[in-house]
Amino acid sequence: MSAITLHLPILIVLIPFVAAYLLPVISYFIEGWARRITLIAVGGTLLSALMLLAEVAASGPVTYHLSGIAPPLGIAFETDYLGITISVVILAIGLLTILYAQDPITEIGGRKTVFFYTAILLAVGAMQGIVICADIFTLFILLEILAIAMYGLVALGGDGRGLLAGYKYLLIGSAGSAFILIGIGFLYISTGTLNMQLMAEILPPISSSWTVLAGIALLIAGLSTKTGLFPLHIWMPDAYAYAPSIAPVISTLALKAGLVALIRIIYTVSGPVITVDQVPLQSILALLGALAIVVCSIMAIRQIDIRKMFAYSSGANIGCVVLGMSIGTLAGLEGAILLIITHALAKACLFLCADVLLIQAGIRTIFQFRGLGQTMPYTMGAFSMAAISIIGIPLSGGFMSKVYVANAAIDSGLWIYAGTILFWTLLTALYFFRIINSAYFDEPDQRTRPHDPRRMNLIPIMTLAVASILIGFLVEIPMDLIRPAAMLLLPGGGI
User: Fold this and answer.
1) Which of 229, 416, 404, 418 is nearest to 314 (CA)?
2) At what angle do helices 415-441 and 306-327 cross, to 10 degrees?
3) Has residue 495 got a pLDDT over 60?
4) Residue 263 in 3-state DSSP?
5) Phi/psi at 316 (nearest 5 deg)?
6) Which class for 86: exposed (0-12), middle (13-18), buried (19 or more C-beta within 10 A)?
7) How far apart are CA 234 and CA 238, in angstroms?
8) CB 396 within 8 A of CB 403
9) Whole-angstrom Cα distance, residue 234 to residue 248?
10) What are the φ/ψ torsions at residue 245 (nearest 5 degrees)?
């Protein structure tokens, strides 16, 4: 392994953080470079992550000890198949999103642009750390950096509603942070270490201790708040609806990083504990996941605001990810990880389409889509492809993810959950097809003639739309990384 490769795990975390530190300084002397610096930093981080992905695919997980000190005294980053795969997905979508962004972003005004991109860089750096972190307290710090960046991004919304949504997000997120910190304290008292792997080795003999059980319960409750798992998703609709341009996409990626953290806590830290009969953690999470699917889908049908509809749709997808990981089989975990990827691609595309519609024509509600298939053919084409993936129409990325989770439920005798996924597909089709039907079969509004954005804005949107469909046809490519990731996480390698 070369010297550069050896340090790649810390580089993918540090590059965005260093850029976030330098951006305000450079912008003080040179105006108008905030977006360019962000593009260079995220592009450089993506290049480093791809090099690391190649190393992991060739030689297996790469462990990095900060300052050269191994745990339990030092801080470790474990770049395994799960972490590096999600890292590349987050960075690739993040780069496309910044390429799409208007310059300057009219909703926030030129004076706040530097703060806007600084917050994005902080969020990207924190997400990179979260998905590869092997130390539970470092995970907490990175979650807090991510949360502070996201509170700021949401509050930058163009009117008072954005500020109120950011405040609501802050209040609920702070409660989640308190749960996580107290949970870490309980586990540290019980095990004497903050390293996840060492913690997992110490926990089995003391797994019935109430301190351990309370610590794990608080950790999972806190992470459920951060990831928007039902019923702790109430901050999401307003945060998504009133955040400024591209911030909802960054928020979607932040949820994916949080789901990876939840997977690590459940499988790496508490894996031995959840197998005991007195803690039916998997059953509780599976039930919450199924409830999230049904309740959030019904709430999505009732929404008029397109961004709020997407927020509730995301809540249903998070429920299915949690359901898949809670089944506890290789297929279930594979489906959950695949759904994280396919949903990130499709939902990022949908939020960018919603951004275009808002900027080009002031369209915010589902009743304003009449005839847009004629006046904005490329935007609505991308919207329809992403919607097809979210619905789960056969051969799309979303379909393949749902098939994995549904098959895992059937193989485990959990037929009700397989039925829930089928019901979810019908509900999702209901709220997306009413929009697509109006766009392609209603006459356009003659008072306004919106048009597609310029090519530079359209390319990222179309790339995400095509990827959200194509991943279903080429599903074995991501599965080559997802399968070993799931086998490493499951006790006994998923055998």
Assistant:
1) 229
2) 160
3) no
4) helix
5) -65, -40
6) buried
7) 8
8) no
9) 15
10) -45, 140
